[in-house]
Specification:
The protein has a four-stranded mixed beta sheet, covered by helices on one side. Strands 1-3-2 form a three-stranded antiparallel beta sheet. Strands 8-9 form a two-stranded antiparallel sheet. The chain is α/β, with parallel strands linked by helices. Helix 7 crosses helix 9 and helix 9 packs antiparallel against helix 10. The protein is built from ten helices and nine strands.
């Protein structure tokens, strides 16, 4: 984290909490403590004493999205039905470790090429999955129907999106997820300062290919916003 870098990679929980609460009034200390504990569990931080930590050495790990068994099942069924279609599957729950305020989200994205969106939507409805199926919902519909639900959202997959294969499923790379965070209706809970939190935590914890990030951002007309976010984060260092 930036605070640790500014202090030579070593810091105390008490001093970190004082620094963050000074910069962001109203933030809960429990949220900060939760992030520290997650970074210790992931190996990014190491405890050196009571309430004291240091940043571990070595290169940042690659981000890997692990699809759930349910997602693997849905993906396999759709791939069988649409073998030539390009699509990926993932859940916005993957953003929770990168956020300060934990949202109540439990839905799944099926990002699919434009010409297949409606057919995939109809196929999902016929599968009787016990979930609401939404097709390219508006911002109003997202606010109304997604919070606290376990829906499946069919969305447009932009060509040349950063994707990879994990456990037999096509899933997004971190570069796609970060760009999608900016202004996607379905990721409304990650707007404002949370967008900066997500980018900052992701950059601190994972290797990110900035060429892929900016190339995909250009395809989504979001390159200027991504560059601005990266510039502000790097300036804080």
């Amino acid at each position: 984290m930036n605070y640790a870098v500014r202090h030579g990679g070593v810091f105390s929980r008490k001093d970190l909490l004082l620094d963050i609460t000074h910069q962001q009034m109203g933030i809960k200390t429990s949220a900060v403590s939760l992030q520290i504990n997650r970074m210790v569990a992931s190996g990014i931080l190491q405890r050196t004493g009571r309430g004291e930590y240091k940043v571990t050495q070595g290169g940042l790990p690659e981000f890997v999205y692990r699809p759930s068994p349910f997602e693997q099942n849905v993906f396999a069924k759709l791939k069988k039905k649409f073998p030539l279609a390009d699509f990926c599957i993932w859940s916005p729950k993957v953003l929770i470790p990168f956020m300060v305020n934990v949202p109540n989200v439990d839905y799944i994205f099926l990002d699919v090429e434009k010409d297949v969106m409606e057919s995939a939507f109809n196929a999902l409805q016929c599968m009787e999955l016990g979930r609401n199926i939404l097709l390219a919902p508006s911002l109003i519909e997202c606010n109304r129907y997604l919070t606290g639900t376990d829906s499946i959202v069919v969305r447009h997959l932009i060509g040349q999106s950063p994707l990879t294969v994990v456990d037999g499923c096509i899933v997004p790379r971190i570069e796609k997820i970060l760009v999608d965070v900016i202004d996607d209706n379905e990721l409304f809970f990650a707007s404002g300062y949370e967008t900066y939190n997500i980018f900052e935590f992701a950059l601190e914890r994972n290797h990110i290919n900035k060429s892929k990030l900016l190339r995909y951002a250009s395809r989504r007309n979001r390159k200027d916003k991504v560059v601005q976010i990266l510039s502000e984060i790097e300036h804080e260092l």
